[in-house]
Amino acid sequence: MKFSVTAEDYTIEAALKVIGKDLFIALTGGDNPHIGTVTTLTKNTKMQTVRFPSHDGRLHKDDVLATEIGQIIQPFLPGSCTITAGVHVNHISKKQIMISAQMSHDLGQQIKVWLEQTDFSGIEPVYYSNTETPK
Which residues form the Prenylated flavin chaperone LpdD-like domain (predicted)? Predict the structure, then answer.
């Protein structure tokens, strides 16, 4: 499943992959897509982010985009969610930076609607009880 938003001469895309009841989202866009941050969350846990260094040693800031999406979809997650984010626009303008928050919000809303319409029921995993051990 893919969602995208285009504004101010660039596009941000969210490519989703369902893994069991878990969700992987690759958020990319601009002139040089990459993986700048990794954000993880579930319906009931706080978001956590790892930020990777960029070419000049500063840490990537793509988590602001992932966090916007995460806050919108969090109540609707059936399992865990991992969002990788990497959007780079060469010589980005202030207007392009400002619009990125709205673009992420729009993507979050699209993903939320999809989550609400998607059936995640299926075979539940089976675990050993406290009195059982592998044979």
Answer: 8-115
